[in-house]
Design goal:
- The chain has about 325 residues and is an alpha+beta fold.
- The protein folds into two domains: about 80 residues; about 240 residues, Alpha-Beta Complex (paralog of FGE (formylglycine-generating enzyme)), CATH 3.90.1580.
- Helices cover about 20% and strands about 20% of the residues.
- It contains six helices and 16 strands.
- A hairpin with a 2-residue loop joins strand 3 and strand 4.
Length: about 325
């Protein structure tokens, strides 16, 4: 037990420039965590470490369990702050469900965040007006993009077959899928599972992507770290691997979601309107529903072909019928 707690301390120590952490790990005393802004502080108690997970007790007595192998140390520290805060949402990062086709989805808690980007953010576009948004209901979001295997299990087709810039295999993203076909997939999956599956709204997608951050990417502002979290131009196109790569191989964000930046652009439910952010409701905003003729759907996250256009706030658009090796999707499942 002491040795394992010492290993946890070893994970935390390299982040001393980011957080102040004090604890008597040998006696499993509460961990005091304060972020550098001084805005948030928390106290969590290490109960035990079992295998590669650590169980923590919050001040209100609730228990959370964190998989140490899932998060890098900075994300682990951030989550320690979040789960220990007195006003923290009551969520468990291990609250993962698996459906009948092996699709994993993590519960994303309700919460409030700043959607869009600050005016001085590099790569910012004029349709990213920053504004406060509240997601009032928790939801499940798929931890990865829909894979070719998952597509075939539901639709029985291979829309990527014979197309350019595709690597085939069950764990590669399903690409060459239009917005229309992604919506059809959600409807068929809902019927198969007896649960409501759909594309995420643009607000849900960005909220889940940011996972509590306000930086350019969910991992911060350091462009040098981009390749640790994303398949981008430098680690695909530039080395002649010109295709979307297998899901779940890069580091996840703090909600345990993989490939939110790069790999493939991900369709969202909303239609695109350039000025929507300036007039959208604060609670659970949804852009115009169901793209009609002449309207454009939204994709998020960028793709493997570029190192730009992957910012958390970046909005990309395409016709609902458009298909590409750069476009795929992930699904949301509504809570019962």
């Amino acid at each position: 037990m002491k040795t394992q707690l010492g290993l946890l301390l070893f994970l935390l120590l390299p982040a001393v420039f980011i957080f102040s952490v004090t604890a008597d790990f040998c006696s499993a005393a509460p961990i005091k965590v304060t972020d550098v802004s001084g805005k948030f502080s928390s106290t969590v108690e290490v109960i035990e470490i079992v295998g590669t997970s650590v169980k923590l007790r919050r001040a209100d007595g609730s228990i959370v369990e964190l998989p140490l192998t899932t998060f890098d140390r900075d994300s682990l520290i951030k989550i320690l702050v979040e789960v220990g805060r007195e006003d923290a949402p009551n969520f468990n990062v291990n609250n993962t469900i698996t459906n009948t086709i092996g699709m994993k989805l993590n519960e994303i808690p309700a919460g409030t965040f700043l959607m869009g980007s600050p005016e001085d953010e590099e790569g910012r576009q004029n349709d990213e007006h920053q504004h406060k948004v509240t997601i009032t209901k928790p939801f499940y979001m798929q931890t990865t993009e829909v894979t070719q295997g998952q597509w075939q299990a539901v639709m029985g087709t291979e829309p990527w077959k014979g197309e350019d810039n595709v690597k085939e295999g069950p764990d590669y993203p399903a690409v060459w899928v239009s917005w229309d076909r992604a919506v059809a997939y959600c409807k068929q999956l809902s019927k198969k599972e007896g649960k409501t599956y759909r594309l995420p709204t643009e607000a849900e997608w960005e909220y889940a992507c940011r996972a509590g951050t306000e930086t350019r990417w969910s991992f911060g502002d350091d462009e040098k770290a981009h390749g640790n979290y994303a398949w981008d131009k430098e680690n695909t196109f530039d080395i002649d691997e010109k295709y979307a790569h297998q899901v779940g191989l890069k580091k996840p964000n703090a909600f345990g979601l993989y490939d939110m930046h790069g790999n493939v652009g991900e369709w969202c439910h909303d239609q695109y309107e350039n000025d929507y952010y300036e007039r959208s409701p604060e609670k659970d905003p949804q852009g115009p529903q169901g793209p009609a003729d002449g309207r454009f759907a939204i994709s998020r996250g960028g793709s493997w072909k570029y190192s730009r256009w992957t910012n958390s706030a970046r909005r990309n658009t395409a016709a609902a019928s458009y298909k590409s090796y750069e476009l795929g999707f992930r699904v949301v499942r509504e809570l019962d």
